[in-house]
């Protein structure tokens, strides 16, 4: 295998799929479709696909010189490790997760996502929508956790579904467009 050709492949579809599928699964819990105990099914996916696959994607994006992709995939891959460790440590009674602290953590991720979202204005509409709904999901989930308002958590789950849909759609589009350019529309950039 020629390493130069391997480095030409776009790693983003892998990271977007890992992020999207993990987010879909967790959103079923947040939206109240699955019980809270189903979060234990999310944890292996959070480590393997949401976490590890995105960290790997981030490393390849760095190698390609894509600062945005490197920052996004490495950060959100790390988020999935953070979240999985929180759940596992809580289940093992090593820690107890205070709702207010989790709420602040999610709001901080929302603030990070807000500035990452601003980087999508010059990319494509599908990524713009992915980060817009991710920002809304983190903020709403954060306030839901901080104030213990289940309706906000449910709404955050809905925003999570929209986030996951656009992430997976973007992954699908990039893969298909690599095979035949223009096959799947990703939409124009908001700003030129």
TrEMBL record:
Keyword annotations: Membrane, Transmembrane, Transmembrane helix
Top-level taxonomic group: Archaea
Predominant location category: membrane
MF terms (GO), sorted A to Z: acetate:proton symporter activity
TM helices/strands, residue ranges: 12-35, 41-60, 67-89, 101-118, 125-149, 155-175
UniProt-annotated location(s): Membrane
Family assignment from sequence similarity: Belongs to the acetate uptake transporter (AceTr) (TC 2.A.96) family.
Pfam family, one: Gpr1_Fun34_YaaH
Listed name of the protein: Transcriptional regulator
GO biological process, one term: succinate transmembrane transport
GO (cellular component) term, any one: plasma membrane
């Amino acid at each position: 295998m020629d390493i130069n050709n391997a480095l030409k492949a776009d790693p983003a579809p892998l990271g977007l799929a890992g992020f999207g599928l993990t987010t879909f699964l967790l959103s079923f819990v947040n939206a109240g479709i699955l019980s809270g105990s189903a979060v234990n099914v999310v944890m292996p996916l959070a480590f393997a696909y949401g976490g590890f696959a995105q960290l790997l994607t981030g490393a390849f994006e760095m190698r390609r010189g894509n600062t945005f992709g490197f920052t996004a995939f490495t950060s959100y891959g790390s988020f999935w490790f953070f979240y999985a460790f929180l759940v596992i440590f809580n289940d093992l009674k090593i820690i107890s997760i205070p709702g207010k602290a989790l709420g602040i953590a999610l709001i901080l991720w929302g603030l990070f996502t807000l500035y990452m979202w601003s980087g999508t204005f010059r990319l494509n509409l599908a990524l713009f929508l992915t980060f817009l709904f991710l920002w809304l999901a983190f903020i709403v989930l954060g306030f839901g956790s901080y104030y213990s308002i289940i309706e906000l958590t449910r709404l955050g789950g809905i925003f999570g579904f929209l986030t996951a849909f656009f992430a997976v759609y973007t992954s699908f589009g990039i893969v298909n467009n690599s095979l035949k350019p223009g096959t799947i529309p990703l939409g124009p950039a908001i700003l030129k």
